[in-house]
Specification:
CATH topology of the largest domain: Glutaredoxin
Strand content: under 5%
Distance between the termini: 42 Å
Radius of gyration: 21 Å
CATH class of the largest domain: Alpha Beta
Low-confidence stretches: 247-252
Shape: globular
Number of helices: 11
Number of domains: 2
Mean pLDDT: 91
Number of strands: 2
Order of helices and strands: HHEEHHHHHHHHH
Structural class: mainly alpha
Largest sheet: 2 strands, antiparallel
Length: 261
């Protein structure tokens, strides 16, 4: 995954990967493997020129032969392919509904301003699901938005609330939401990630925001936005590999010709 050394829009992707038990590596695509995180405008423009960023934005996750961008599209791919999208099309639709509501809540400025409207509705969703799945096999004490196993909706909820120092106080009287948060946080993948050195402090390592600004200065009004740097979009990693190979061949041919002239 290509991103800066902070949480930002990559954090929900990391949590989805952790929840699904998927290992991942952080580096800079098409660059020296010794780099763990992107940190310069040159690196960003290299990715833009390669056509691997559909909208010239990060994060970029290279997985399953795809160059995935847009955080929620990436998260949904992880969920669909790794068991976090319910057991039926109906459950998948209900998961989408929950996720859309959660993202609306997240857009509240500040987040707490949305508590009065959204938290009772989320509690109602969880309660309704608990009633409808009471006859199904389930981990004792488990609480979910949809179905009888963890889904990406539960992970998105955990992501939103995880920035709060005291989730119990923050969630107030909403008993089921507290139970859901605790259950997701105690799941193997999430618990391992949250307690590991892989999780960056909020918002990131020291100097993180400065590195973001220097990498994409046009988003901060420091310079004009560069033009589209690639006429082609490469949505799969194989396309990029072919392009990179062709570039290497061109460089080799040019170097050979230069030596003989």
């Amino acid at each position: 995954m290509t991103y800066w050394d902070g949480r930002g829009n990559a954090e929900i992707i990391r949590l989805a990967l952790a929840a699904s038990g998927t290992e991942w590596h952080e580096g800079v695509a098409l660059d020296d493997p010794r780099f763990k995180n992107i940190s310069s405008e040159e690196q960003m423009k290299q990715l833009m020129s390669a056509g691997v960023l559909a909208f010239d934005q990060l994060p970029l996750l290279e997985i399953d032969g795809l160059n995935l961008v847009q955080k929620m599209a990436t998260v949904r791919h992880i969920a669909r392919t790794r068991g976090l999208y319910g057991s039926t099309p109906a459950e998948a639709a209900r998961i989408d509904i929950a996720v859309e509501g959660l993202m609306d809540y997240r857009s509240s400025k500040p987040l707490k301003a949305g508590n009065g409207r959204y938290l009772p509705l989320f509690e109602r969703l969880v309660h309704a699901n608990r009633e409808s799945t009471a006859h199904m096999p389930c981990v004792e004490g488990a609480t979910y938005f949809v179905g009888n196993k963890m889904s990406i909706a539960d992970v998105v909820f955990f992501w939103i609330i995880s920035d709060k120092e005291d989730y119990e106080a923050y969630l107030g009287p909403h008993r089921l939401l507290k139970a859901l948060y605790a259950h997701v946080g105690a799941s193997d993948g999430i618990a391992t990630y949250m307690s590991s050195g892989r999780r960056y402090p909020r918002p990131g390592l020291e100097g993180y925001l400065d590195r973001v600004k220097s990498t994409i200065p046009w988003t901060h009004g420091l310079v004009e936005r560069p033009p589209m740097l690639s006429e082609s979009y490469h949505g799969t990693t194989s396309e990029v590999e072919v392009t990179a190979l062709a570039l290497l061949v061109c460089i080799a041919v040019t170097t050979t010709l230069a030596r003989h002239t």
